[in-house]
Prior knowledge:
With 139 residues, this protein is α+β, with helices and mostly antiparallel strands. It has one helix and ten strands.
Amino acid sequence: MRGAARTLGAFAFALAASCAATAxxxxxxxxxxxxxxxxxERYTLRLRLEPAPAVGRxxxxxxxxxxxxxxxxxxxxxxxxxxxxxxxxMNYRPGISALGDGRYRADGLMxxxxxxxxxxxxxxxxxxxxxxxxxxxxx
Length: 139
Ligand SMILES: [Cu+2]
């Protein structure tokens, strides 16, 4: 019993370590093949969802906030997701951390039903908040 628990613990640690090694946020000049793109008036976002979202499975969002192709340094960045057709959001509030160079990581997102979701980013800079919406169709 104790041996099994220890083995499981070691396995979980190895899994976490391998995820951290592969899940790098994109950079501003990322190739379109490796990162999706969302745009507002002043910003371009390069983003990646990891792992690919499935109904009821947590995923992370790795992204870079860019202004004219270079990393931007906004005062605050937040992200949320909604299903506009149903008028509801997620059941979880994601945690977000700044990694420097305009790059961010948000963890703990989950789409709890299939259909059209919208990821909504809010970028605050100079007393102004700009919203960037990225649609996502979940099968
Ligand atoms: Cu819904």
